[in-house]
Amino acid sequence: xxxxxxxxPGAGKGTQSAWLTAHLAIPHLSTGEMLRAxxxxxxxxxxxxxxxxxxxxxxxxxxxxxxxxxxxxxxDCRPGFLLxxxxxxxRQAESLDEMLARRGTPLDLVLNLVVPEEMLVQRLTARGRAxxxxxVIRQRLQVFYAETAPLLQHYQDQSLVRDVDGxxxxxxxxxxxxxxxxxxxxxxxxxxxxxxxxxx
Length: 200
Ligand code: AP5
Ligand code: MG
What we know:
Blueprint: E1 2-6, H1 13-24, E2 28-30, H2 31-40, H3 44-55, H4 61-72, E3 81-84, H5 90-103, E4 109-114, H6 117-127, H7 134-148, H8 151-156, E5 161-165, H9 170-181, H10 188-199
Parallel strand pairs: 1-3, 1-4, 2-3, 4-5
């Protein structure tokens, strides 16, 4: 399955991706994690990325797109992948479309995790990652609503989006996601009955 996990900072994308990627046996492609790793190298590119992460601004598109393009070309992405935190801009979304179109492997699903803003701020201030200060959280949320949230329409136009209520405990959210990725099967008896009727 090829899926995009969509939702604001603090919605629970990382938390839910952990079990979901294990469950679907697909790699977890988090651009936030990849960029924190790049920043930790301390190279010139790393320092440039770090300066964006620290203030909650988006890292420039060309770098992020290059990272994702290289990652998607790796063998473990053949059966599918979960993108967490990408795409975040129109240019990233268009690049992703092009990459997937070239491979003939379109997206299957966009899971949109919906959480009210005040709950996001509470969750993030409680976590305490380097960019989880009140000021940087507000900046990340502003960037999300201005640049990333409008991308949802692009995927809604393709009927790819399923909204998931991200409030409640992680276990409750997990159950809701499970219901989307594993819709209840038609009981086999019903299938047999239908077959019998057609034959008879
Ligand atoms: P990124 O790492 O993607 O951070 P983010 O989008 O701000 O989202 P978070 O990781 O904070 O939230 P999450 O939804 O994963 O929630 P989580 O499960 O952790 O990006 C960081 C930075 O990298 C960006 O600001 C930007 O600079 C750069 N970047 C990344 N991608 C980029 C791109 N494509 N282009 C350009 N720049 C890019 O949960 C949050 C907290 O809540 C945790 O403590 C968790 O334990 C808790 N929690 C989770 N679920 C629940 C629940 N149900 N109830 C209570 N608490 C919960
Ligand atoms: Mg995350």
